[in-house]
Amino acid sequence: MKLFFRLFTLVAVLAMSLADVAPAWALTSRIKDIASLQAGRDNQLIGYGLIVGLQGTGDGFRSSPFTEQSMRAMLQNLGISTQGGQSNAKNTAAVMVTANLPPFASPGSRIDVTVSSLGDATSLRGGTLVMTSLSGADGQIYAVAQGAAIVSGFQAQGQAATVTEGVTTAGRVPGGAIIERELPSRFKDSVNLVLQLRNPDFSTAIRIADIVNGYASARFGGPVAEAKDSQEVVIQKPRTADLTRLMADIENLIVETDTPAKVVINERTGTIVIGSDVRVSPVAVSYGTLTVQVTETPQIIQPEPFSRGVTAVQPQTDIAAEQTGGRVAIIDGPDLRTLVAGLNNIGVKPDGIIAILQGIKSAGALQAELVLQ
């Protein structure tokens, strides 16, 4: 019995200790998870191409004349004469081809591309993208795309009904583009590393610089990092350091992150996101709604038999008004859990909570930034 009591006491002490340090764990992240390398950003590519092999769901040449012009130009480049003939087959569609060129991509590697209909095609399912060059913002060709398009949506149509699920005029070609040109800049040629925070914050930027300087002082004998502003942290390359190995060591350092208090509201979807640092000063809230329901039930009045009367419609309207809510609740949110519990106790729906949060912000009791989307 004594042994069981001691084990129970030990488990309780461990649970209390873990509860005390759990918030510290939740606020720490690796540098690679909260910041990105400026020299390692993506580059956008775009191109114009044709998708062939559609089952009569392609562009109509009358409403999309550029599709026919593109098809004729493609056939002429292949040595096929198209003069004097006109095709009405709807098995071809003009598409815009887009892709993201990842950082440090080398020639010969493959990337995914996205195809989107440019004309009046109804579906790209079953089509094949023919060879399309993808250019960057500088006009240079960096990749060439070709392959079968994968479309998640589908469409079924009959004489009197049509069923459509998802988007049938856009799809992807997995691994459909081959990189042909290397990016001009190289990682090894950089003289420093610039880290960009995904969520700009001065406190987090200063902590990153301090953690990196602590690592550099122990490894290279001096500080190398400086926080320029809330988003950028510049790291100078030590003379004896390899840039790739230096970045690999820095991105795995653990940093305690900090975020400003925000409440994000999307009134169209009724979505409410409340940050963990949001505080609400003591405030009294009353929420009530007035519902007015109007019901029209017209009645048909028939004339007597063998009379000269006519059939008439007599309108009948029923109006009912109902008022709900009206309870007054005191909301005091020293932490997120108390705030959510106080809002739930009022018993309103998300649209009502949105109105309450806006009213609390107008009253000056919401100690956070209110973001409306």
From TrEMBL:
<protein>
    <recommendedName>
        <fullName>Flagellar P-ring protein</fullName>
    </recommendedName>
</protein>
<dbReference type="InterPro" id="IPR001782">
    <property type="entry name" value="Flag_FlgI"/>
</dbReference>
<keyword id="KW-0966">Cell projection</keyword>
<keyword id="KW-0732">Signal</keyword>
<comment type="function">
    <text>Assembles around the rod to form the L-ring and probably protects the motor/basal body from shearing forces during rotation.</text>
</comment>
<keyword id="KW-0969">Cilium</keyword>
<keyword id="KW-0975">Bacterial flagellum</keyword>
<dbReference type="GO" id="GO:0009428">
    <property type="term" value="C:bacterial-type flagellum basal body, distal rod, P ring"/>
</dbReference>
<keyword id="KW-0574">Periplasm</keyword>
<comment type="similarity">
    <text>Belongs to the FlgI family.</text>
</comment>
<feature type="signal peptide">
    <location>
        <begin position="1"/>
        <end position="26"/>
    </location>
</feature>
<dbReference type="GO" id="GO:0005198">
    <property type="term" value="F:structural molecule activity"/>
</dbReference>
<keyword id="KW-0282">Flagellum</keyword>
<dbReference type="GO" id="GO:0030288">
    <property type="term" value="C:outer membrane-bounded periplasmic space"/>
</dbReference>
<dbReference type="GO" id="GO:0071973">
    <property type="term" value="P:bacterial-type flagellum-dependent cell motility"/>
</dbReference>
<comment type="subunit">
    <text>The basal body constitutes a major portion of the flagellar organelle and consists of four rings (L,P,S, and M) mounted on a central rod.</text>
</comment>
<dbReference type="Pfam" id="PF02119">
    <property type="entry name" value="FlgI"/>
</dbReference>
